[in-house]
Amino acid sequence: MGRTSRKRSTLAGRAVAASVALVLGGGGLVAVNVYASAGEGSGRPSAQDGGRGQGGGSGPPAVSTIDCPEVANGLGDVPRRARGKVDRTLAAMDSQITDAYRRFAENADPARQEDLLGSLRDQRERSLRRINGALQRAGGSAPEGLKGMAPCTMRADDNGGGEGGDGQDGGQDGGQGDNGGQDGGQGGDESGGGQAGNGPVDEDFVDIESVEPNVNTPENGDDASTGKFATQCGVNENGNRNSDNVIAAPGVSNGAHHMHDYVGNQANDAFASDDDLAAGETSCDDQGDRSTYYWPVLRVQNGEDEADANEDGGGNDQNVGKIQTPSEVTLDFVGSPVGEVVEMPRFLRIITGDAKAFTNGDANANASWSCTGFEDRQLKDKYPLCPEGSSVVRSFRFQSCWDGQNTDSANHRTHVAFADESGRCPEGFQAIPQLVQRIVYDVAPERNFAVDAFPEQLHKPITDHGDFINVFDDEVMDEMVSCINEGRECG
């Protein structure tokens, strides 16, 4: 699949109140609060999920984005022979949404929205037929209800509504405050949509000093594995970036529609095989760590165009502004509070967080935002405004339970899992070293920074995510597990 070239668009005239009454694609347009508490279930936002935040304003929210069912989450098991075709088709469906969003953003006339959604539904139906065909040829079958995932709807951005979230236990008791420093930052365009026209908005930010401490850590039991293994792989000072995603969209250029920073393995693009990764160079001090660690770049929308302003993943996908190189990146592997850990299999792939959490809901969201000196206060769905002398912190605690068999799964999630609140893995899973990733940025406390995202996700902080592929040499992985289980600090 070749790279596409699309004109950068804005949302200056994107939405009118009249469109609130429009019923599209079989689904009504409703005001929703996407910041529901985390949990199992569908993860889809609901109008009953809570009230608006203080910055939400009043009156009907404007249509601002396209909401499509996440097909990958509905596939279940996919025969290995079909996965390549399925992954490429899913990536094509992401491009369909991105292109439809661009057309909507350039002309938000309500009279044309039904046609736009009808065209998108037809494209998705053809893609779903291709997925069904690939499954059948591989001896599988499409899950019930797959065809019903073709229609999409227009939906509203309630300007950030909800409360701050805690990023640890899924609660929403942090970040209530008054959004602090209302005179800070840039207001963006007239719709409050930032320089890119699709976010961030003022209500995506909160003063970290207004957030109550909200981090709860499970207590270690008598059999806990309390060691830590640290690997140092730099901050991507060499600017290794692309808009691919070799885990979620292997073999597809610009499969992410946003830029990633990479540290560790230097051979990582959409076409990298396990053999390529095994032979790749690494930025890690320990040359036995050829693992790849990547995440969406952070940009400051300060009017300065980055070099990718006219490229896919950058301006063509409405990711604009100056990319920020982290001031610090730490990569630690830690143990389990209830027992020993086992070695991770080589080429294990883990995605944590959900790049589409704004429209999917937060069931898989795992973003955690804070400030240095305030890391007992974690935000899930807000960017932090840090006081003078404090820096922005993004952190991820990756899934720490493995099914004991697979290095990947059809939806890139079900082969790994999170431990419960006590630290125990689900039945059938075993504890592995948990990657704890912390990324620090020196940015001003202004409402003009955001992570790269799929354009229809509006640069919401809840869409932050991280990716990891284990390419540790076997002897280094053995050293890591021994270190953690014996309670030592190594690396």
Structural commentary:
It is built from five helices and 23 strands. With 491 residues, the chain is α+β, with helices and mostly antiparallel strands. A six-stranded mixed beta sheet has the order 14-16-20-12-6-23. Strands 7-8-9-22-13 form a five-stranded antiparallel beta sheet, with no helix packed on it. Helix 1 runs antiparallel to helix 2. It is globular and about 65 Å long. The two termini are 40 Å apart.
Number of strands: 23
Q: Give the amount of beta strand, in percent.
A: 15-25%
Stretches with pLDDT under 50, minimum 5 residues: 1-61, 160-192
* Radius of gyration, taken over Cα atoms and rounded to an integer in Å: 22 Å
Helicity, in percent?
Answer: 10-25%
Instruction: Give the CA-based shape.
Output: globular
Overall average residue pLDDT: 83
Number of H- or I-type helical stretches: 5
* Strand adjacency order, main sheet: 14-16-20-12-6-23
Secondary-structure-derived class = alpha+beta
**End-to-end span in angstroms?**
40 Å
Largest sheet: 6 strands, mixed
Element-level helix/strand string:
EEEHHEEEEEHEEEEEHEEEEEEEEEHE
